[in-house]
Amino acid sequence: MMQNSAEMYRVEDTILRIGRKAKVEIVSYTTQTGIFIGVEGVGNVRMAQIQERRINLDKVTKANQLSREFANDELTEDEFLARLIALEKEKLFFPMWLEILSAATISGGMMILFGGILPDVPATFLIGGIAFIFYLIMLKNLKIKVFAEFMASLLAGVLVISAIRLGLVSMMNTVLIGSVMPFVPGVHITNAVRDLLAGHLLSGISRFFEAIMTACAVGFGIAFAFQIMM
Description:
Helix content: 55-70%
Largest sheet: 3 strands, antiparallel
Number of helices: 9
Strand order of the largest sheet: 1-2-3
């Protein structure tokens, strides 16, 4: 659940629910990069490091549902463990072509919502899709999410300015906003607020900082594009 961007309070609630079902008093502490679990009356504490984080709310929902089924005696302990292992191995992400199409659609749709005009939709759709493809390529090769977002925003800025000069679009600001909308850290901001409201101050602040880093990467990429092209 933590690897797939679940809120910290949800992770801890799931752990406690499993512990109560197993008649074990569990104490847990979670952060974005690690999880600590101890059993009441036992001196040893187990720690698991979270080295990979992605956004896959489908896995979060399924893992949460499995824990509830186990707590309601709908699954045995062995069945619960087997289902969790199978869930971990599942490839639940959408095909890459569908992710690219969705990003392009978000770009065109959000451009309209921010006051754009219909004739600019095709160019925004195309620029958003190209920028997202470039983001996936950079992320796969460099493994640095913030830098991939910076480079993708830089490319989007260059393409939008070029489209303005070629007369392909007429409203630069709205097209530019739409093109970078797939990189806006909406999930991180939402989870940060929910963690803060649940009292997980460390996780909430760290998520906010991660969201700010993404926003800065997008902003710096666009600013650098203006420095190059204008």
